Amino acid sequence: MNETMIQFKGITKQYTMGEVKIDALTGVDFTVKRGEFAIIAGPSGAGKSTILNILGGMDSPTTGEFTVNKQPLHRYGKKDLITYRRQEVGFVFQFYNLIQNLTALENVELAVEICKNPFKPLEILKQVGLENRMINFPSQLSGGEQQRVSIARALAKNPTLLLCDEPTGALDYTTGRSVLKLLQDTCRQTGMTVVLITHNLAIAPMGDRIIKIKNGCVENMSVNPNPLPVEDIEW
Amino acid sequence: MGTVIIKNAIKEIHSSFSRFLAILLVIMIGSAFYTGLKSVGPDLEASANQYFEATHFMNFRLLSSIGFNDADLAAVRNTSGVENAQPVNAIDTFLSFGQQTNVAHVISIPDPTGAINDLHLVQGRLPQQSNECIIDKQRSEAGPKIGDTITLTSGTETPLSESLSETVYHVVGIAETPSYLTKDRGITQLGNGKINGLVFLPAANFTVPAYTEILVTAAGTSGISTFSEEYIEITTPLEESLNTVASQRVEIRQQELKADAEAQLAAQKTAFAAANGITDPSLLDASPEFLAAQKSINELATPQWHVLSRTSNSGYLDYQNTIDSTNGIASILPLFFFGIATLVCLTTMTRMVEEQRTQIGTLKALGYSNGAIAFKYLLYAATASILGSLLGWAIGFMLIPQVIFKAYRVLYTLPEMTSAFYGSIAALSALFAITVTTVATFLSCLTILRSAPAELMLPSAPPPGKRIFLESFDVIWKKLRFSQKITFRNLFRYKKRFWMTVLGVACCTAMLVAGLGLRDSIATQVAEKQFGDILRYDISLQLKENVTMEQQSALDYTLTNNNLSAYLDNTVNNISVQRIADTSDSIDSLLMVPTDPASLSNYFMLRSYDTGEPLVLSDHGVILTQKLAESLDVSPGDTIVIKEDETTTQLVLVEGIAENYLQHYVFLSPSYYQTIYGEAPQPNQILGLLDSTQPQEDLAATLMATEGVSSVRFTSNNEQDFQNTLGSINYLIWIIIIAAALLALVVQYTLTTINISERFREIATIKVLGFYDREVSAYITRESYLLTLFGILPGLIAGVLLHGYILDAAEVGNVMYVESILAQSFLLSILLTFMFTWLVNLILIGTLKKINMVEALKSNE
Q1: Is residue B491 within 8 angstroms of chain A, CB to CB?
Q2: Rounded average pLDDT over B284-307
Q3: Are A113 and B853 an interchain contact pair (Cβ–Cβ within 8 Å)?
Q4: Which of B755, B759, B766, B769 should we substitute to test contact with A (largest number of A Cβ atoms within 10 Å)?
Q5: pLDDT, tens digit (0-9, with 9 covering 90-100), for B100-157
Q6: By CB neighbour count within 10 A (0-12 exposed, 13-18 middle, 19+ buried), where does B433 fall?
Q7: What is d(CA B629, CA B657) in angstroms, rounded to the nearest whole number?
Q8: What backbone phi and psi angles, to 5 degrees, belong to B17?
């Protein structure tokens, strides 16, 4: 539990939009330990998405160093970053991003196809409670069910890191809670490191580690020795 | 409409330039092909009309079995509807120039006042002295130039001095005449039966008492197209009047001839009586010789007049057929292009409107009317189609006719073929293009414009996933790899894209197959089969008339000592062939009588057109070549008529039909010739096989220097000439290939970009999931290769049909095309189609790489 999973050191990110330069991140430092449920929270525009993009290997920082699972990702080229995304990261999107033309099962299979040590898609779907909906297409599933497929897709890859971008953003309260519970249980049961990004500070108590972002840098990072189960959190 | 909307449309063009270009390009190709092919027919028509007006081409040509006198001419001139009538004298003679001797048709130069069939002087001047002449361009290319001297000699027992005042001429000019539009000069009773050149002499040089023909122009035909209905309406009554005049004159001439002959006979009798001391000449009536003379006068044949219209001129008829076949081709090919243009426009505009639904919703919410919003898209599409039409006109009216003329110039002696701009064709193509694009645009807008603004603010739901038909076949479906399953699902999910790509690819393949197939059929295979399989002799020698025994043995000696490994004496005569004796058109062909039919197959392979079995000449029938048999519509067992000239006709039995592609032949065995003509054939040609070691120029010179040889021709030269003639077809094929390529690229590019933009999120998602670039590309390109494959199959079939259609429309004269398409052309078409897909994919892989994954995380739309 004490092994460092993620380390950000002085990460900055500058975008050039036409003639205007925007500093999205002005120096971000934080660490996440293996097996932790980390919550990165902050208002919109604070820079959490940029952190997620960098952490997910979809974007590179302008300056600074960061490692995930001891890999110095800031030194990685484009192709190495794809390999990193492919083998180490599971993504859960706000809008699920399921392939409309594939059934629930096939959506999971699509991700698994390209991994080294994946789990069996069927079993993962059972695990997220969708064994009866496997042959349905996304358009035949509710929002919550779709998000479960999305989570199953991410988990089936057997990633070292699960990245969730506002996973409850498009869901109603009850469904959102059940999705959060699924994520928290997964983390507890499998020991997978989970990073959840949200603007909703109310769910922060469920994390092992809470990183608050404001104006492109970490405002506050705290370790929560007694994370609450999702059932005990109201918002 | 507000200026904002117009500004918006202009910005739209700028920001989605590749789309704009796609519409513009397909419209350009469509309109170029439409206007180009449609205008060639009228261009050819106009060029001919212009030439005919300038040279006062006759409307009718009168021939008579006894010639015409001045009274005949006056009667023709007085016929109502006749604008002008001019007498012409003509005679066939031998023309000698250096070593060459062959037959020329000698014609009097039209009277400069009110000339008909005026010469088109290419070079030099008109004769001023009685010993000056003009020759036609084609003859000049083979020999005499301006300044050279030619000698004319009689081909019959009558000395030429009875017909012409001079026989040795200086060539002072080179000309073309509208009476000979093609390079075919017709047939003659002299020599080998073929006229090689035309010689034009001052009319005063002809010392014959009668005119050979009378040329007539009709009043009121000036400015009227000779190919129009109006022309027929004007000339038909005149043709009837001329026939009436003909029957009257024939009557009068016969009376005159009888009277003349009787007067002559009476004079003879008187002279005879006086010489023999008989007082009453009428006592001689009973004597056998005078009785016979009287009988022949009584039985004097009625003279025949022929009134021949322009269509009886073979060059004119060929030209008219060419116009018809060009119009035939023009009626179907352009439709292909406009069909594709509609598809491209419809897909592009639908996507564009779909992409801008939020913007449309905003405009609607702001209170813009549906009309104003649609106007932007209509303006966009109309601008693309107008610009495309304009560019298409430029290519269509200027470039395409010129390329086609290049091919036709080889066939016709027309001095000038000009391309013109035809307002009606241009307007029709533009109207079509603009209608197609605006209607397609309007349809694309319709659904969206009907929706409420609030609905438009929400993204449209992506089409739901569905199981496909293939999945019900477990056997197949289970065997597919996962990625293959996805590909199939996706293909059938986007049905519109599926059909459009398949259709576009099919059209492209079809055009490639048709284009490459045309080259196979018209050039490659004809040359291969004709010069490789059928014509096996390497050299042919034309002999002079009446070769003596001494000359013959000297010739044999020369032949055996000059690398000719073998040779065959042959009799070749120009004849015309008819199905039944009366009305059907007669077709010029060559009568071939090999002295030794058994060895013919070494020189000329006679094999059955359908089974390929060798054919043997028998003693009671002829073998025809395939195209001749087809044109006459005869099969083995039928009887045909062969004519040496108008009066000598023979009925012969058709025994076999032989494969052949160039020229019509009728093969006869010497004994059958003997049977029907009552005399042995006189060989006038030698076909030889060469040991090809000796340089051919030397051999030609040696042989030409041998007595009795009138001309030498190498088969390799003939093949070269043929290749040159058809070299022009390559231009056409390049046009078709380029058009097919452009079309394929535009269609594929349009549909694939739309595919990518529609599935943007999906692609971004799989990128985030960790697909490598090449896997992402494969995810998309697998689909386009598969679609290409689906399109190729119907494309090949459509290509074969299109090829057959064009070939049918294009085949004229004595050339037969090979209907089959070579396997390599099919392969090349498939390969090229795939290459175009590959090329488009190459461009799109770049686009795929640039897709920003972060987009996948953002909200829908």
Answers
A1: no
A2: 78
A3: no
A4: B769
A5: 788 899 999 887 777 888 889 888 999 998 889 999 988 888 888 898 999 888 877 7
A6: buried
A7: 7
A8: -65, -35
List pLDDT tens digits, range B764-823. 888 988 899 988 998 888 888 999 999 999 999 999 998 888 887 766 666 788 888 999
Torsion of CA B452, B456, B462, B464, to 10 degrees: -20
Query: What gap in Å lies between CA B833 and CA B826, rounded to an integer?
Result: 11
The conformation of residue B89, written as its DSSP 8-state character, comes to: -
Nearest to B731 by CA among B319, B405, B313: B405
Give the pLDDT band (50/70/90) at residue B349: confident
Q: Where are the alpha helices (DSSP H) in A118-218?
A: 121-127, 143-156, 173-190
Per-residue pLDDT reduced to its tens digit, A119-158: 899 988 988 888 888 888 888 888 889 988 998 999 898 8
The minimum CA-CA distance between A154 and chain B, rounded to whole Å, is 9
Instruction: Name the phi and psi angles at B506, rounded to 5.
Output: -60, -45
Q: Are B43 and B417 in contact (CB under 8 A)?
A: yes
- How far, in Å, CA of B447 to CA of B427, rounded? 31
DSSP B565-598: EEEEEEEEEEEEEESSSSSSPPEEEEEEEES-GG
> Is domain A4-232 in CATH 3.40.50.300, yes or no?
yes
CA–CA distance, B529 with B539 (Å, rounded to integer):
17
DSSP string across B414-473: -S-------HHHHHHHHHHHHHHHHHHHHHHHHHHHHS-HHHHHSPPPPPPP---GGGG-
Alpha helices in B277-356 (DSSP H): 288-298, 314-355
Q: Do B578 and B722 touch, CB atoms closer than 8 A?
A: no
B interface test, pick of A100, A137, A140, A196 with most B CB neighbours within 10 Å:
A100
Q: For residues B360 and B353, is the Cβ–Cβ distance under 8 A?
A: yes
What is the nearest CA distance from B453 to chain A, expressed in angstroms?
Answer: 23
Instruction: Return the structure tokens found at A118.
Output: 């994946």
Q: Whose CA is closest to B857, among B765, B776, B760? A: B765
Of B465, B486, B764, the CB nearest to A137: B465
Alpha-carbon separation of residue B661 from B627, B665, B813 (angstroms): 7, 10, 11
